[in-house]
Amino acid sequence: MYDTGKIIAGLVIFAGLVTLPFWYNSGKAAAKPEPSLDTPVIQQMKDKHCIESKQYMIDNHMQMLNEWRNEFVRGDMTMYINSKGQYYTMSLEDTCLHCHSNEKQFCDKCHTYVDIKPYCWDCHVKPKEEVASGQR
Amino acid sequence: MKLLFSFITVLLLVIIAYAGIRYASLYYVFGVIIPYAAVGIFITGFVYRVLKWAGSPVPFRIPTTCGQEKSLPWIKQNKLDNPSSTLGVIGRMSLEILFFRSLLRNTKTELREGPSLAYGSDKWLWLAGLAFHWSFLIILIRHLRLFTEPVPYLITLLNNLDAFLQIGVPPLYITDVVLLASVSYLFIRRVLIPQFRYISLISDYFPLFLILGIGISGILMRYFFRVNLISVKELVMGLVSFNPQVSADIGSIFYIHIMLIATLFAYFPFSKLMHMGGVFLSPTRNLANNNRMIRHINPWNYPVKVHTYEEYEDEFRDKMKAVDIPVEKE
User: Fold this and answer.
1) DSSP assignment of B144-206, as one string?
2) Domains defined for chain B, CATH in brackets
3) Given A46, B36, B85, B288, which is the most exposed site by the fewest CB atoms within 10 A?
4) In chain A, where are the structural domains located?
5) What are the residues of chain B with a beta carbon less than 8 Å away from any beta carbon of chain A?
6) For residues B229, B235, B236 and B237, what is the CA-based torsion angle, rounded to 10 degrees?
7) % of chain A beyond a pLDDT of 90
């Protein structure tokens, strides 16, 4: 073999870069994010439900919020009719955050885990963190 | 024919992954075994290939004079095109690897009326190649957000920059568009220009279709048939911490994406894609042109048995003197 030093150094750098995720995470168990539903408003609800089914909200909340924004700001709809025929105001602050007032324990849990930075707070006022009574 | 064969092979891979997940529920095979095997083949194959290359001697410096070599002090040397020092070589290599400098010299020839042969500059290949490689690199680095916990700040920054236009939900990545556009251009160029189609082989079409398939499946997965990203990250984090856990709530489009990437990784060391390692070992780029300053001895020269005149004279001096032949040493 010729230029042994350079070749080996190059291959070590290559192998190091390719296996980077393996040693970056070694010894750390990444916990699955568990968004918390523990807020005063949700606690008081007898029948705990969101405006649509849980699975639908997990899959589609981002699209829904985007549509709401467009409808409310640029369109002429201000009310959302869900699959059961119930009416809700299209509002992040008054509808979503009314129950989910714990942004850090709810929204951010998953968003931070997969490195998503929604730009809600570019326009909206960030809610004051209200931790469920009895905690803190 | 070659085109069709490559296309059908990629299509088969997609069908295998889809059927394997949809009808046979082979989550462990497609989510764990195939990715691990592909990374294993990739690393060992890559190292083997480079070591094999390192076994070939490079006896002479190949200057490929695109510029004036180092000469008399009053002749201006082209230090980047024809370097004589290590620093110059690093400059030439960086420009080659980061900006594909030699592709910038690409020319096209045309036979015109007359008949006369015309040469012109052709920068489209360089531009599309550069756009493709850079967006592929950014996409690769961007994916590290699924491979790291906590996600390093630089990766977050890159993600946000890439989604800078804030079009739609989830936001459109600029590199997704650039990658698809440039790969499509590179493919169309190969098919439409008769000379290129004539020299194109299966090993040219197959990687193109594979990369196109990876891009399209990724885009479909992000913007159309969306999958549960939390489960995806859990699976990936399980893989990189050697504690794989499969879950059934990820759509089959994800496994198609993984299958195509695993094929690319496993195919990599056997294909022309090895130019990723090879570009660092190209003798016309990585050797300083110092042929006139340093003597380079051919490494495979074996010791030749020679009989010099001095030895000859030593052997026959007495006899030469006896018949009055002049000798150099008395």
Assistant:
1) GGGT-SSPPHHHHHHHHHHTTT--TTTTPPHHHHHHHHHHHHHHHHHHHSHHHHHH--HHHHH
2) 2-303 (1.20.950.20)
3) A46
4) 30-122
5) 39, 42-43, 46-47, 50-51, 54-58, 144-151, 155-156, 159-160, 166, 168-170, 226, 228-230, 233-234, 237, 240-242, 277, 280, 299
6) 100
7) 24
Instruction: Return the structure tokens found at B20.
Output: 């394997």
| Residue B22: closest CA among B248, B228, B210 | B248
Contact A115 B151 (CB under 8 A): yes
Convert A22-57 to b/e letters by CB count within 10 Å (16 or more is b): eeebeeeebeeeebebebeebeeeeeeebbbeeeee
Q: What is the ipTM of this complex?
A: 0.86
- The answer on pLDDT for B218 being more than 90 is yes
Cross-strand pairs, B107: B121
Tell me the pLDDT tens digit for each residue of B126-154.
999 999 999 999 999 999 999 998 899 99
| Best mutation target, A18, A22, A71, A114, to test chain B (most B CBs within 10 A) | A114
Nearest CA in chain A to B156: A115
∠ Cα B97 B101 B107 (to 5°)? 140
Residue length of chain B: 330
